[in-house]
Write a structure and sequence with these properties.
The protein is mainly β. It folds into 2 domains: 84 residues, SH3 type barrels, CATH 2.30.30.100; 37 residues, no CATH class. 14% of the residues lie in helices and 43% in strands. It is built from 1 helix and 8 strands; from the N terminus they run αββββββββ. The strands form 2 sheets. Strands 4-3-2-1-5-8 form a 6-stranded antiparallel β-sheet, with helices on one face. It has a two-stranded antiparallel sheet with strand order 6-7. The longest helix has 18 residues. The two termini are 18 Å apart.
């Protein structure tokens, strides 16, 4: 009995991860007997069902029909912002032989940029244990 309850605790722990998913998280649901996963967004999860959102339509999948669930968990920022600014000091430049109207003038040079990183990979958050019905 102790061994079975230990296995149940492990299964319940992995299903707890499913229940903790934030609504809108990208997921792949592998159902029994299907080769391709269902690509969806997480809705809500109860003890025996997973609510998914596919193309703005909600549907439920029984826990017993799910082999595996993978989620794209947020892992930091995808965008990085950069900016630089440089002051131009005219006293650091020579003015010998230059007409007064062509003297270097003080100024600033600025640039900004943004880079977009890739999405994090899918991670398995639930897998039905072998022999489970």
């Amino acid at each position: 009995m102790g061994l079975a309850s230990g296995a149940d605790v492990k299964t319940d722990d992995t299903w707890a991860k499913v229940k903790e998913l934030k609504s809108g998280t990208e997921i792949r649901v592998y159902k029994k007997g299907m080769a391709q996963p269902v690509l969806a967004k997480a809705g809500d999860a109860t003890d025996d069902k997973l609510i998914i959102i596919v193309k703005n339509s909600q549907s439920a999948i029984d826990k017993k029909d799910i082999d595996r669930i993978e989620a794209r968990l947020a892992g930091g920022k995808r965008t990085t912002m950069t900016s630089t600014s440089k002051s131009i000091d005219p006293t650091s430049q020579t003015t010998d032989g230059v007409r007064p109207e062509n003297y270097p003038r003080p100024g600033t040079s600025s640039s900004a940029g943004m880079s977009i990183g890739s999405k994090p990979d899918f991670e398995t958050i639930y897998q039905r244990r072998p022999g489970a019905k």
